[in-house]
Structure formats: C-alpha cells, structure tokens
Amino acid sequence: MSDKDKAMAYWKANVRLILISLVIWAIVSFGFGIVLRPLLSGIAIGGTDLGFWFAQQGSILVFLGLIFFYAFRMNSLDRKHGVDEE
Description:
transmembrane helix, Na_symporter_ssu, membrane, mainly alpha, 86 residues, 2 strands
C-alpha cells in the first residue's frame, strides 16, 4: 500500500467519524429539540418538558460528549494509521 493510499484511508476514516458525529448532533439538537418537541412535551425532566430540555441543555451536553468521543476515536485512529504524536 502506497503512502497516498494510506493517507486516503486515514482521511476517509476521519471524514466518516466527523459525519457520524454531525448526524448525531443534528438529530439531538434539531430532531429532539425542534421536530420531536411536541412528542417529548409530556415527559418532565428538571422541572420542564424533555423537548425544551434537549433544545436548551441536552444538545449542548451531547455536543460536549461528542467532542470527547471524537478526540478519543481520533487518537486511536492516529495510532492505527501511524500518525500519532507520541
């Protein structure tokens, strides 16, 4: 496998990870916070309905979780492809 093929495999895995993270965040922030809010309004969490919670705090918490998930997965991806910093 040439260096160009290795680089393409690395970036393909990186872009796939980014797209998965963005889809999860879009589903949580737009889907749960806006589109599915009427369905989630009957479920109470923290003194408010679940749809409002996802729109205000839930999407932010999921985004922070995705940042740590992305960093963890990229470190393992870097090690797998031999481009880690250590």
